User: Which sequence fits this backbone?
């Protein structure tokens, strides 16, 4: 239960390197269950959701060695097909093993994910897609018990765009008999990354990155070496941190096209943003103005950066609006930002933010991963000292964010809570 202590007011400046993508890494690691053998996966961020997925793979029977952002995974002779409550309750993305286990072993027993800090997060689209592929599903004693003889190619139409169910359907369909067409598929770069990995394992997937993905099932796949894409959400977080302190920050190891709308919103506010091939620079720019943002599936504005922009817009004069269109309740952090002096009003799935001239430090509590990051960046621009507790949320999605910010000049430190008592 570590805490983070920030003494605000330092202007960030310098260069920082983004890690590989958490949300690409989680399905890619689950997909290693699809073939027997040895894998080398590179550019893996060392954060706690990835470590939870590693525990899950080990529980299922994989051997995993994690050194210096590289994972060596051996999946020979895996017989277990269960994801236990203990792990799934700490990370919903554990559901990603469902598709691969069914494709590989015809059987899976995965704990049903419970509630979540972002509102109701059902898994009906995952289960409906697998059912269409021929899977029999029973929910009993808090577990999804799923079985299939051989998956059969089919047409899947998602009523709403869904990253997780698109990934699960994809990981099952690659070993199904015949052709599967996924319509209204998620177009996120993390889905494209997963499809590229599966193709490098011998799958036949086309159309990834668009709304229609076509998969010709193959009889078997083989292991492959792979490198993850950079984490566009970490990139956005670091840029907002720079913006928040009106500093000049260069973020390296990124793919600027993955962040298109985010960079444009920063420019709309009045920051100067320059892209190079694999780096982005943010500078203070000129006069600032309030803006409106609506979160949407890719290439729309990512919901994961919504709390970060709420923090930033709290310091921009005028009235900004944010509409949250992906999750039913992703505003739990507002009362914490209000503790820092932000002027935010919530109405349904929309917030209006009246920019204040200065935030002021206070003790706050992080309710989820991105909200934790939003509180950290808000604290960078607040007068005085902010202590952020429940930092384990931050650690789920960021590899030592405080060290990266400190390297840019932030006055920030982690306090191991044991040391406090
Ligand atoms: N939905 C359903 N039924 C389903 C699945 C989704 O109704 O079976 C709804 C969700 O409740 C939500 C919407 O569909 O309202 C979109 O959910 P999606 O399936 O796209 O989200 P996810 O796969 O659960 C991933 C990321 C999230 C990110 C969202 C949206 C991972 C591990 N998680 O979640 O990342 O916010 O896509 O882009 O990739 C984070 O990293 O902090 C995070 C929450």
Assistant:
């Amino acid at each position: 239960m570590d805490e983070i202590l920030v003494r605000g007011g330092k202007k960030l400046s310098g260069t920082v390197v983004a890690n590989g993508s958490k949300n690409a890494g989680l399905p890619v690691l689950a997909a290693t269950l699809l073939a027997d053998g040895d894998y080398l996966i590179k550019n893996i961020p060392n954060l706690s959701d990835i470590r939870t997925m590693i525990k899950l793979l080990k529980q299922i029977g994989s051997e995993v060695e994690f050194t210096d952002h590289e994972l060596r995974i051996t999946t020979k002779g895996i017989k277990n097909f269960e994801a236990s409550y203990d792990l799934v309750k700490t990370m919903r993305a554990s559901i990603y093993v469902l598709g691969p286990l069914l494709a590989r072993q015809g059987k899976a027993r995965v704990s049903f994910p419970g509630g979540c800090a972002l509102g109701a997060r059902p898994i009906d689209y995952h289960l409906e897609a697998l059912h269409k592929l021929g899977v029999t599903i029973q929910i009993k004693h808090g577990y999804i018990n799923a079985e299939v003889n051989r998956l059969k190619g089919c047409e899947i139409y998602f009523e709403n765009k869904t990253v997780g169910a698109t990934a699960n359907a994809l990981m099952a369909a690659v070993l199904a008999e015949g052709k599967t067409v996924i319509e209204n598929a998620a177009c996120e770069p993390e889905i494209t990354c997963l499809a590229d990995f599966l193709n490098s394992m011998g799958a036949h997937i086309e159309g990834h990155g668009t709304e229609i993905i076509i998969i010709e099932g193959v009889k078997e796949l083989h292991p492959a070496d792979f490198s993850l894409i950079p984490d566009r959400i970490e990139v956005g977080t670091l840029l907002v941190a720079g913006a928040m302190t009106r500093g000049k920050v260069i973020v390296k190891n990124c793919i600027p096209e993955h962040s298109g709308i985010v960079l444009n919103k920063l420019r709309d506010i009045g920051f100067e943003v320059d892209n190079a091939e694999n780096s982005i620079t943010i500078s203070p720019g000129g006069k600032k103005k309030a803006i409106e943002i609506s979160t949407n599936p890719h290439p729309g504005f990512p919901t994961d950066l919504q709390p970060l922009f709420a923090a930033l817009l709290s310091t921009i004069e005028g009235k900004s609006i944010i509409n949250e269109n992906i999750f039913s309740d992703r505003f739990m952090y507002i009362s914490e930002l209000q503790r820092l002096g932000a002027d935010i009003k919530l109405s349904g799935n929309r917030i209006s933010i009246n920019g204040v001239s200065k935030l002021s430090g206070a003790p706050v509590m992080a309710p989820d991963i991105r909200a934790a990051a939003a509180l950290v960046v808000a604290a960078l621009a607040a007068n005085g000292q902010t202590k952020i507790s429940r930092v384990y949320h931050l650690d789920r999605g960021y590899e030592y964010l405080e060290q990266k910010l400190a390297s840019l000049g932030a006055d920030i430190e982690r306090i191991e809570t044991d040391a406090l008592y």
